[in-house]
Each structure stands twice: as C-alpha cells, then as structure tokens.
Amino acid sequence: MQIRENFPLKSYNTFSIDAKARLFNEFSSVEELEEYLMLYSQYPIFILGGGSNILFTKDYDGTVLKNNIRGIDLQHEDAEYVYVKVGAGENWHQFVLHCINHNWAGIENLSLIPGNIGAAPIQNIGAYGVELDEVFWSLEAFHLQERRIHTLTAADCEFGYRDSVFKNRYKDQFAILSVTFQLKKKPVYHVSYGAITEELEKMGVRELNIKAVSQAVINIRSSKLPDPEKIPNSGSFFKNPEVPTEKYEALKLQFPNIVAYPLAKGTVKLAAGWMIEQCGWKGYRKGDAGCHAKQALVLVNYGNATGKEIYDLSEEILQSVNEKFGVMLEREVNII
Ligand SMILES: Cc1cc2nc3c(=O)[nH]c(=O)nc-3n(C[C@H](O)[C@H](O)[C@H](O)COP(=O)(O)OP(=O)(O)OC[C@H]3O[C@@H](n4cnc5c(N)ncnc54)[C@H](O)[C@@H]3O)c2cc1C
C-alpha cells in the first residue's frame, strides 16, 4: 500500500482539473481495499475509475481510491451466449476490442467510450442505440460500511437512462469489483442509429460484422467528439430530458424544428444539445471554460479552467434552457 498525501488529480480526470486529494491510494484486489479500510476508516472515500465522468469543483477532502482490479475470464457458455467476468479496473474500450477479437457480440456499438468497466453500470453507459443493461448479467461489489461482497443482478441495479441504483439509493456505498456480461455468439446488429449505415457504406462494407460496426462507430465518434487528450472534457455534460408528450407538442408549436425522439411510455426525449445550441451556447468560451464548437452537449476545458468555472458555466446553460424552453436539464457528469 502506497498512500500519498495532498495528491494532484489533474492527470486522473479527463477534464484535466487541477484538484488535489487529501489522500490517494490504488488497489488491485478486494484484499488491498479491505486493508486500506482497516487502517483509514475515518476519511470519506471516492472510488475512481478512468476519471471520464467526473468534475472536481474543489479539492477532495478524503481518500481517492483508484480501482485497478484486472482480469477478463470466460466463466461459461451455452448455445447462444458467453458469460464473461471482467475486473472493474479494465479499460472499457480495450474490453470491447477483446470481445470483437473473440467474436462475442453485443457491445460493438459502445466502442470508444472512455473509462473503466467498474463505472459502466453506474450510469448504464449507452451510445448508438445500445445500453449496457442489454448485455449486463451481474456484478460483484464491496459494501464499504458492511465490509462484505454483494452480488447484484440487473434487477437489483435498477438501470435507467444514464442511471442506476448506484447514482441513487446506493450512492457512494459500494466499490464495484467486477462485472459479468452476457454476450451473444450470433450478433444482432443495431445500425439504424445515427450515421452508422452511411459510415458502413463509406467504408465499403458489404457483409455486416461486429468489427466493421465497431470501426464505423469509432470513425463517427472520432469525427464528432473532442478527444480529451487534446481538449479536456467529460463527454456529454447533460442528459437528454424526457418530457410528457403534451409538453413536447406545445414546444413543437413554438419551435417547429425541435429535435426529439418518441419513447414508448407516452414521453418524448428532447435533444439537449439542440436546445443548448438554440440558446446560443455552442462555441461559447469564457476564460478557459467553454461549450464545444461542434457538439453543444460537451463542455470543455481549454487549458486552466477550474472545476468551479466549468460548473458555473453549466449552471448558466441550465438556466437559459429553462427560460427558453421551460425544461430543466440534468447533469450527466458526477459533480464532486
Ligand atoms: C469523450 C467522452 C465521450 C463519452 N461518451 C460517452 C457515451 O457515449 N456514453 C456514455 O454513457 N458515457 C460517455 N462518456 C462518459 C464516461 O465515459 C462514462 O460514464 C464511463 O463509464 C466513466 O468511466 P470512468 O471509469 O472514467 O468513471 P469515473 O469518471 O472514474 O467515475 C464515474 C463515477 O463512477 C464511480 N465509480 C467509478 N468506478 C467505480 C467502481 N469500481 N465502483 C464504484 N464506483 C465507481 C465514481 O465514483 C464516479 O461517481 C464519455 C466521456 C468522454 C470523456
């Protein structure tokens, strides 16, 4: 165990915010985590993955514990599926590539999402028409107070749109240790979302396969989203809000071009990026905090923005969208 004090977190969050942790430690097994908890139970704990969905608005007055548990194990298989258990500290995209190499289907549309396996269930990551809960089988998580391992099924996790029990009732209570996925031996393709079909055509793909779908998603994402290595960011800062159909219809009369997707249950999902753009924020910059020029949903740090500056900008955006559309956006990024 190597506990560091007053530890700089700039290279541990994709927003590149220059915050510090009172204490910092890494663990590669549940035993190492337990060992730490026995010695330092007095401080609050923040479990860190790849740091790609967080915004530090101040220094963290507790311990940041980085989860480095590794391992990809094929547990068992049947005629249709493989069941693969993956350590929480494995990189998400590397796991996607591993699945493609083994011809395990289901997460090819989730290619190039930054971060680690352990955080994927926290907000039920999703992209290009697929969400994690479609391939999720179970997870193992260590309860930080009870000091014991729980196994949670999909029902226990209460997955929703960019949401799970870990953002609500169980917030900050568990360290996720591993996730088990149920992946298909025979792929079912989801290519109608976004520009996947056009991209596949451009790539000259005649017969669909998961490697090609993954590459198409990678190409589209690389052309649209800012690379955090070049312009630090945490992806979509806000969720797309769901509103009742009546509210959508009223908005549509006022804003005929409003971008929206009908959902099954009498609600409609509005494109937050479109609303932010209509309020004039796209490409806006104040100091080093900004709203990306190509993708209004993404807030960026052009260099030395503080977390507070990014947060204040997000607050201004929330207020202006609410004034114009009467819709209160919700932040997707975890504010710390
Ligand atoms: C350029 C870019 C594009 C993105 N695109 C998408 C996208 O298309 N779809 C999408 O859904 N997300 C997207 N994201 C957001 C992000 O990639 C995901 O939310 C990812 O799952 C975060 O993983 P992480 O390991 O970086 O989590 P972190 O940022 O380290 O942590 C996020 C939260 O999870 C908690 N946590 C992390 N690991 C554990 C663990 N083992 N146990 C318990 N709690 C834990 C943390 O405490 C924190 O609250 C994008 C981000 C970026 C920067």
Kindly describe this structure.
The protein is an alpha+beta fold and 336 residues long. Helices cover 24% and strands 28% of the residues. A five-stranded antiparallel sheet has the order 6-7-12-10-11. The chain has a four-stranded mixed sheet with strand order 1-2-5-3, covered by helices on one side. A four-stranded antiparallel sheet has the order 13-19-18-17, with helices on one face. The radius of gyration is 20 Å and the shape is globular. The structure holds flavin-adenine dinucleotide. Residues 14, 46-54, 67, 88, 113-116, 118-120, 122-123, 125-127, 174-176, 225, 228, 233-235, 334 line the site of flavin-adenine dinucleotide (FAD).
A few lines on this structure:
The protein has 336 residues and is an alpha+beta fold. It has eight helices and 20 strands.
Instruction: Kindly report the spatial arrangement of strands forming the biggest sheet.
Output: 6-7-12-10-11
Distance between the termini: 25 Å
Order of helical and strand elements? EEHEEEEEHEEEEHEHHEEHEEHEEEHE
Beta-strand residue percentage: 25-35%
Overall mean pLDDT stands at 96
